[in-house]
Amino acid sequence: MPKKFKVVDIEELAPNIKRIVINAPLIARKAQAGQFVILRVDERGERFPLTIVDWKPNEGLITLIFQEVGVSTKKLGSLKPGDYIMDIVGPLGNPTEVKNYGTVAVIGGGVGTALIYPWIRALKPHGNYIVTIIGARTKSLLLLEDTLREISDEIYISTDDGSKGIKGFTSDVLRELLEKGRRFDLVMAVGPVPMMKAVADVTRPYKIKTIVSLNPIMVDGTGMCGACRVKVGGEIKFACVDGPEFDAHQVDFKQLMNRLVFYREEEMKAARLKFKEE
Predict the structure, then answer these.
(1) Which positions ≥6 away from 154 have C-beta within 8 Å?
(2) What single string gives the DSSP state of each residue in 3-40?
(3) Banded pLDDT at 58 (limits 50, 70, 90)
(4) What confidence tens digit (pLDDT) does each residue in 163-208 have?
(5) Adjacent-strand bridge partners of 86
(6) Is there a domain that residue 181 lies in?
(7) Which long-range contacts link 56-62 to residues 24+ away (Cβ below 8 Å)?
(8) How far apart (Å, rounded) are the C-alpha atoms in residues 196 and 134?
(9) What per-residue confidence (pLDDT) applies to 276?
């Protein structure tokens, strides 16, 4: 395996959720908020995308946060400092459009909570007032709470089971704020597709511009394979080159959810074969 992308550090943030720091100088030099990489752990691995959570150009390092859900992410999670990743391509995708919007609600659910960090870090220097809403199934799965609290003007927490913050979903928190008269100039959300759809449903009646970051199945990351196609405003778009950020009110979430489970059977088969090998 070419010794190019060295793992510098890896740690578990929550059960099955890990943060990995990788030496990738060229990517670190060009990365911007909202962009992602596509990586392949080894020669037998599949290509899959991960959002760039942090980058340090002077040190040549990038940080990714991911959940171990399939064979490839479990392979990535099994690496140790000093190991190497075979391929990393990036930065890919269009950067977040950063300017002074005013008051911005930034919403992260599940692993998506980690992905809002680069959004906030990019938006704050432009004078935006950041209201952060994060959620998870339970307290132990909340990510980067202290880090996000430090860079946000306000922060609200929800958990499905009520173990911390408000019992319910991030969309419930947003709805309650709007019903109390809070005004937002922009809402940004990333997380599970049902969560992003719920946020879009809440903001639609208020006509608040809402942006979501989509992470469908990707292969080449250049728009050639078509695997990441999504329907936005009735038109076919490719998340890798047209996104990954889109107007939430224009996204066909039903089609997106159907496509995300398209290869579920193959993923389960790959997991069973991996288990037998071990």
Answers:
(1) 130, 131, 132
(2) --EEEEEEEEEETTEEEEEEE-HHHHHH--TT-EEEEE
(3) very high
(4) 999 999 999 999 999 999 999 999 999 999 899 999 999 999 999 9
(5) none
(6) yes
(7) 56/28, 57/28, 57/29, 57/31, 59/28, 60/23, 60/24, 60/25, 60/28, 60/29, 61/8, 61/21, 61/22, 61/23, 61/24, 61/28, 62/21, 62/22, 62/24, 62/27, 62/28, 62/31, 62/37
(8) 12
(9) 46
- The answer to whether the pTM exceeds 0.85 is yes
Whole-number Å distance between alpha carbons of 240 and 261: 19
User: Which of 92, 127, 151 is the endpoint of a domain?
Assistant: 92
| Boundaries of domain holding 175 | 94-206
**Residue 251 DSSP label:** B
The answer on 71 and 143 residing in a single domain is no
Q: Which two tokens stand for residue 54?
A: 């942090």
DSSP per-residue letters across 178-203: HHTT---SEEEEESSHHHHHHHHHHH
